[in-house]
Design a protein that fits this description.
Radius of gyration: 15 Å
Distance between the termini: 41 Å
Bound molecules: S-adenosylmethionine
Structural class: alpha/beta
Largest sheet: 7 strands, mixed
Number of helices: 6
Number of domains: 1
Order of helices and strands: HHEHEEHEHEHEE
CATH architecture: 3-Layer(aba) Sandwich
CATH class: Alpha Beta
Number of strands: 7
CATH topology: Rossmann fold
């Protein structure tokens, strides 16, 4: 499924078209600022990590099941965010936590939605532990059963919350991004 964003990503050294989803959201909501420390969950192949670096982030720590090609001046942990041994390796506090975590789709919509929500809950758990007060959170979620409850829960912990669908996200895809700005701690 090659399209204009895939070609653009490859020619601009961003590795994946998904990089434009983050860049478009950031252009509008300014979630990443210069010198911010970023935790990027589900980072393979590294498009968001490279985009965050180009925006001017300081430390960028990526985590994924799959190993990434190293990216200069970034850190990477290979493992599942659902396993304690991976989570235990995350140290420190971050101004921004990003999650583009996505389950392998099975074709069974309600199963995929449930798996995506599990990953999103894990990202939120990590935010409660590692996100600085006033920090920002961006989580990809497959919209479906349970999404509204998850959104309502996140809302209580941020000064501004919104569901966003950047232009680079395919219309037919059930993914949306839940944005939380200004973590209350
Ligand atoms: C859409 S891709 C991320 C693309 C990335 N944002 C980029 O711009 O290059 C989703 C990633 O989530 C990862 N993932 C899914 N479940 C995971 C888990 N339990 N632990 C860690 N990573 C996981 C997948 O391996 C996959 O690489």
């Amino acid at each position: 499924m090659h399209d204009k964003y895939t070609d653009k990503a490859l020619s601009e050294g961003l590795r994946a078209r998904s990089a434009y989803k983050l860049l478009q959201i950031n252009n509008k909501y300014h979630i990443i600022k210069r010198n911010d420390n970023i935790l990027d969950l589900g980072c393979w192949p590294g498009g968001w990590m490279i985009a965050a670096k180009r925006i001017g982030a300081n430390k960028v720590l990526g985590i994924d099941l799959a190993e990434i090609e190293p990216i200069e001046n970034t850190e990477f942990i290979q493992g599942s965010v659902l396993e304690n041994k991976t989570i235990a390796k995350i140290q420190g506090a971050f101004e921004v936590i990003l999650s583009d975590l996505a389950p392998k789709t099975s074709g069974n919509r309600s199963l995929d939605v449930a798996r995506s929500l599990d990953l999103s809950e894990t990202a939120f758990k990590m935010a409660k532990k590692h996100l600085k007060v006033n920090g920002n959170l961006l989580i990809k979620v497959f919209q479906g059963e349970g999404y509204q409850e998850f959104f309502n829960k996140i809302t209580k912990h941020f000064t501004f919350t919104k569901t966003v669908k950047p232009e680079a996200s395919r219309q037919r895809s059930m993914e949306v991004y839940l944005l939380g700005i200004g973590f209350k701690g």
